[in-house]
Amino acid sequence: MVIRPHKPSRNGPKDTDESSDTWDTIEWLTKHVPGNIAKVGMYGISQPGFYATAGMIDAHPALVAVAPQAPVPITTMGDDSYHNGAFMLAHRFAFYQASAHAKGSDPDLPVAATPFQFGTPDGYDFYLELGSLANADEKYFKHTAAAVESQYRSHYLR
Hints:
The structure is a single chain. This protein is α+β, with helices and mostly antiparallel strands. The protein is 40% helix and 11% strand. It has helices at 18-32, 47-55, 89-101, 123-130, 135-141, 146-156, and strands spanning 40-45, 63-69, 82-83, 86-87. The strands form two sheets. It has a two-stranded parallel sheet. A two-stranded antiparallel ribbon has the order 3-4. Helix 2 links the parallel strand 1 (40-45) and strand 2 (63-69).
């Protein structure tokens, strides 16, 4: 699931949410990134803003600053995934395409994503030619981001 709700209690290490994932990530970073001072900050806008917000619940002691900007709400009511229940295909396709290609070398900051070239000014025609959304990974994402692909498939290719 792309946006997992907070779980106040968990039943073991495989029962996770964004807060526990953030805790584990910060724990790993503070132990493995050379020269760190064990102080972490997070920020994000829109969907990454949700991750920043959710990550500060039950926060790791090294998390000292969080700046979420316009975090997404429930994904069924008036956000950028669903507008009152209607799936926003073009917007989500562009978001996941940009996420799949905006990767840098760990732990460097991500490189800027380049805009996707649809090859036509007609978005409707683009999606008709694409066929099933299951074709998007092979044709356009090229298996470049396993985590994004997994989220994309599990959330949108039901």
